[in-house]
Amino acid sequence: MVLQTIPARIRWSVDLMDVQPGDHVLEIGCGPGAGAELICSRLETGKLFAIDRSESGVDRTKRRCARYVESGRLTVRQIDLATLRVPVKRLNKVYAFNVNLFWVRDCADEIALLHERVVPGGAVYLFFEATRPEEVPTIVEKCSAALAEGGFRVQVVQRKVPSVVGIVGRR
């Protein structure tokens, strides 16, 4: 089996989330599975539910994280957040990296779903890699507004090199 590295931007974002052993986490847009792998490595009694609209993203995550799927620590599904009915009653954390849903269109329904499922004291972590720096203010503004309108307290965090911005919505 080929050892796959975890990019520094993913390590930084997951470190910022401070995943605890008993957390229940939702990952939106699991893609190649790097975030899922790192999150699951920090869980003991907790669980990660990872979703992606793409069949290939789901397949890649399942292959990369097969040991966590087999252990029951990770569930991966091909589904859109808008149609998701979260199988766990309460989530401690929600994680998304480069998921444009939160800044390219109205996402009030999705934010309401997250607010309903995230426990008080829990948080939604939205991260974006700034491949076009001129878009960062728009991303921050739109994501922050969506989270605030949905009842979350917002904090913006930025990593300078490479440029990654995080918008954290705390419940």
TrEMBL record:
Pfam families assigned: Methyltransf_25
UniProt xrefs under InterPro entries: Methyltransf_25, SAM-dependent_MTases_sf
Stretches assigned to the Methyltransferase domain: 25-122
Top EC category: transferase
Residues spanning the signal sequence: none
Record's keyword terms, sorted: Methyltransferase, Transferase
EC number: 2.1.-.-
Record's keyword annotation contains Transferase: yes
One GO MF term attached to the UniProt entry: methyltransferase activity
GO terms under biological process: methylation
Protein's name according to its UniProt entry: Class I SAM-dependent methyltransferase
